[in-house]
Amino acid sequence: MQGILSLLLRLLDLYQLVLAVYALLSWFPGGRQSKLGQIITKLSQPYIDIFDRYIPPIGGVSFNVIFAILGIQLVQRGLIMIFSIF
């Protein structure tokens, strides 16, 4: 059981890293148009779109990546609590 939890937590950590890179790519002109940027965008955009529907940009700045990472962290804590029961 611990092996499954460890794997899930590591995958979620990796996805958080992908989201952070996605946010950083917006700071560089053409960052999301590069080959790496396109891969990162394909991986992160479906999850970010969930937050785009409900949270509008504030002053032209989108904070959706922050909320997406917080959502993943909540899932991680929930998994830890669920697996600690068993």
Number of helices, where a helix is a run of at least 4 consecutive DSSP H or I residues = 3
Topology pattern, helix = H, strand = E:
HHH
Helix fraction bin: over 70%
The overall pLDDT average reads 94
Structure description:
This protein is mainly α. The protein has one domain. Helices cover 77% and strands 0% of the residues. It has 3 helices and no strands. The protein has helices at residues 2-25, 35-54, 64-85. Helix 1 (2-25) crosses helix 2 (35-54), helix 1 runs antiparallel to helix 3 (64-85) and helix 2 (35-54) crosses helix 3 (64-85). The protein is globular and about 45 Å long. The N and C termini lie close together (8 Å).
Provide a concise account of the structure shown.
By secondary structure, the chain is an all-alpha fold. It is built from three helices and no strands.
Index terms:
3 helices; mainly alpha; 86 residues; globular; CCB3/YggT; transmembrane; membrane
Annotate the secondary structure layout.
Blueprint: H1 2-25, H2 35-54, H3 64-85
